[in-house]
Structures are given as C-alpha cells and as structure tokens.
Amino acid sequence: MARVAAPPKSHAHDHERQDVPSDVALRVMSLESLLIEKGIVDKAALDALIDTYEHKIGPRNGARVVARAWSDPSYRERLLGDATAAIAELGFKGMQGEHMVVVENTPTVHNLVVCTLCSCYPWPVLGLPPVWYKSSPYRARAVLDPRGVLREFGVNLSEDVEVRVWDSTAEIRYLVLPQRPTGTEHLNEEQLAMLVTRDSMVGVARELSSRAQERA
Amino acid sequence: MNGVHDMGGMHGFGRVVFERHEPVFHAAWEGRLFALRRAAGAWRKWNIDASRYFIERLEPVDYLAASYYARQYLGFVELLIERGLLTRAEIESGRPAAGDSKLAPPLTADKIPQMVVNGSPTSRDAGQPPRVRVGQLVRTRKINPVGHTRLPRYVRGRTGTIVRDHGVFVFPDSNAQFQGEQPQHLYSVRFSARELWGDETNACDSVYLDLWDAYLEAA
C-alpha cells in the first residue's frame, strides 16, 4: 500500500479549530498566486472554468432533458435505456456526467439520489451541487431515513409508494425523471422545461406544479 | 478506510438545512479552489479516486469542522505536495523555491470547453467476463480496508440483487493508491431497506449502490 500521507499539517493544530475555515480564503488566494507563478495553472483557464459552472451549466439543462422525455415517448425510451447517449443528443455531456443513468418516478415509485461517501452529482445536467446535498445530514440520512428527509423537504409520501434511494458510490451519475404534472397537455417542450425544478431531478421534490414556479 | 466521510446511516447531524436561491459559490475563493483543482489535475499527477482519498484522510475533526470547499483545500494541498507539484515550504511561504524555471500550464482557457464536454470516462474496454449476472443474489464482502474503498460500511456483509451490469470500470480501491486501474465489472445492486436497517423500515423501500466485482460474492 502506498504510504499514508501524514494528516494535513493544516494550521488547525496551531490555532483554534474554527480557524480551519476562517482563513481559508487567504490561503486559497496565496495558493493560486503560487501555482500561477510556477506555471502550474493558467489564470485565464481558472476564470473560464468558473464562468462555465457559474453561468453556462446548471439545472436548466436537466429540465430540458425532462421536458423532452415528457414530450417525446421515443426520447423517453432512449433516455431510460442509455441515458448518457440520450442526454448527449441535447449537447449535455462530460465532466461528472460521463456515465449517466435516469430513474423514473411513477405513481408508485419515488427515486432519491445521494452520495454518502462524498458529493457525487451529475454536473452536465444539474451544475454543481447545492450545499444541502453536500451536507452531513443529507449524506447520513438519505439512505437510512429517506421518508424523514423527504418530509423536511415538504414531501409526504404514502406508505405504499416505494422509495428507491440511489447512493452514487461509483462514477455513474443519476438523474430523476419526475412525473409530468397533470393539466400540461397544451404546453410545448420549452414551457414544460420551465416547470421542472432542480430538486425534482434529485428527488427531494415530487409533485411539480402545472404553472411555472419561482426557481429554487 | 472506515473514515468519517462514510456517513451513510449515521445519526446526530440534525435536519437538512435548505437555502433558497443559493449561489453556485458562496464566496469567490470557493470558485477559485474549484478551478485550481481542475487546472492542476490537468498535469495528470493524480486521479479522481486519489483526490477523494486525500480528503478522506483528513483528521476526522478537521473533516467535520470544514465546509465542503475548505475540506477540498486541505486535501488538495496534501495532494500537491505528495505528487511533487509543490513543496510544503513553498505553500507555507507562498513563494516558489529559488531557481525553478516557470512551467507551461497544460490547461489553457481555449481548452476548457473541450475538457468540460469530454470529461474523463472511467469505463474501460477490458474484456473480462462479469462474475455475476443480472437477477443474481449476491452478498457484499465483509472487509475493512485501511485504504480507499467505495464499499460503504452500512452495506458490508449484506445481501442484495444485481439489477444492472454497467460494464467494466476502473477500480477505485487500487487506483486511489496509484496501484493500477484493475478494471472490472461494476453493477447496480439493490438492497431492501429492511436488509440494511432492520424490520422497522418500510418493507417496500430499497437502496441501490454501484459496486464492483471485488466487493461481491455469491449469496
């Protein structure tokens, strides 16, 4: 086995524990300067990466996938069969979505996605994960008490709805296909996409409104 | 390793705190760190499994006290040092060691769009046959490796059903320690909630995990 690295000699040992996060902003700034000065990283590349995940890739991508699946039965079939390829048809693929699986909610099945070991999340379709998804309570409880977690998100499932929790322990990334709200037969794909929330694609929301909601 | 990162099933963390209208990054440094890890990763001195393993090896109190990005900072620094991109002296002083000539960064802004859509697939074309079949009952091995593993404690020694064969993938337990990819079949395995948590849980609920051949034995 490789040598186990000494535990980080973070300055946590010299100061109060609370210093772990409190001076990290300065330390990251100093690390960035050092890495740029040595030619290990390129500043423009950093800016472009941040811009990509702040402005270009987010849950609107996943909403388009869901709306397409609601509108086009053959697309839905491809999506449930080979999600990576079907999602790539809309141009969404790559980092942290190299291997996708889509799981479908039905009147009798509810799906919930978690990563108990770190915070794996399907970036190409949902962007970077929110803090609650990465938090200890969510990671700890989603597998043990999914119904309790769902209640805290306002979802009260009846006992006969089957809950399927997907713990992302490998490089497979999961997207939940929520149920299409009733009363939306007249909406086109673009209008349908407006109804799809990020939370419904992780599985912490279930019933979507037939009218466009304020985005979380 | 049986670390604090392996949180599935733990009690005591309280409610899930939900923030409305959450920004992608809560402070500028989080975005800088996110980008630094990806840009430095382009030197290919480590892999995704190693970067996770370095975070898992934080001291438990540090891991729990740090935010997600603070934790990533602490793991990243150790990775940079262990893999020879920086020395601890450089990090502590904030200055490059004397006499080094400037390198050429492998990741430049023009390469970002391609890098993002290409990603780094971890499926492999290796031809080995699967050890188990869809529909088969399997038991996860009772193991407590001191190194990296993606077999959470809560599922060890439990019986489940293979529901899907994802194909052949890099094995994190060896890859994280730079001991080779050891590609092998990866499966989606369904465990009933009762098998994992006992009879008080709902009889129709289940948990699915993605598990490699090396974690499984015939039930």
Describe this structure in words.
The complex is a heterodimer of chains A (216) and B (219). Chain A is α/β, with parallel strands linked by helices and 216 residues long. Chain A has two domains: 22-55, no CATH class; 58-202, Nitrile Hydratase, Chain A, CATH 3.90.330. In chain A, 44% of the residues lie in helices and 11% in strands. Chain A has helices at residues 19-22, 24-37, 43-56, 59-71, 73-81, 83-88, 123-126, 131-134, 136-144, 146-152, 189-193, 198-202; strands at residues 99-104, 109-114, 162-167, 172-177. In chain A, helix 4 (59-71) packs across helix 5 (73-81) and helix 9 packs across helix 10 (146-152). With 219 residues, chain B is α+β, with helices and mostly antiparallel strands. Chain B has two domains: 28-118, Orthogonal Bundle (Cyclin A, domain 1); 137-218, SH3 type barrels. Chain B has helices spanning 28-41, 48-56, 60-65, 68-82, 88-93, 112-118, 172-175, 193-197; strands spanning 137-140, 159-169, 184-192, 206-212, 216-218. A five-stranded antiparallel sheet of chain B has the order 4-3-2-1-5. In chain B, helix 1 (28-41) packs parallel to helix 4 (68-82) and helix 2 (48-56) packs across helix 4 (68-82). The model of chain B has no long low-confidence stretch (mean pLDDT 96). Classes of the chains: A alpha/beta (216), B alpha+beta (219). Chains A and B meet through helix 2, helix 3, helix 8, helix 9 and helix 10 of A and helix 1, helix 2, helix 3, helix 4 and helix 5 of B. Strand 3 of chain A pairs parallel with strand 4 of chain B, so a sheet runs across the interface.
Which descriptors apply to this entry?
heterodimer, A: alpha/beta, Nitrile Hydratase, Chain A, 2 domains, two-stranded parallel ribbon, disordered N terminus, B: SH3 type barrels
- Provide the gyration radius of chain A in Å: 20 Å
The strand line-up of the biggest sheet of chain A is: 1-4
Determine the number of helices of chain A (DSSP H or I, runs of at least 4 residues).
12
Described by strand count, sense and barrel closure, the largest sheet of chain A is: 2 strands, parallel
Count of discrete domains of chain B? 2
Task: Please give the most extensive interface between any two protein chains, plus how many residues each contributes.
Answer: A-B, 90 and 112 residues
CATH topology of the largest domain in chain A: Nitrile Hydratase, Chain A
Distance between the first and last residues' Cα of chain A:
45 Å
Tell me what portion of residues of chain A adopts beta-strand conformation.
Answer: 5-15%
The end-to-end distance of chain B, rounded to whole angstroms, is: 24 Å
Mean pLDDT of chain B: 96
Adjacency order of strands in the biggest sheet of chain B: 4-3-2-1-5
Structural class of chain B: alpha+beta
How would you state the average pLDDT of chain A, rounded?
A: 91
Shape summary of chain A: globular
Percentage of residues assigned to helices of chain A: 40-55%
> CATH architecture of the largest domain in chain A, please?
Alpha-Beta Complex
Radius of gyration of chain B: 20 Å
CATH class of the largest domain in chain A: Alpha Beta
Major sheet characteristics of chain B: 5 strands, antiparallel
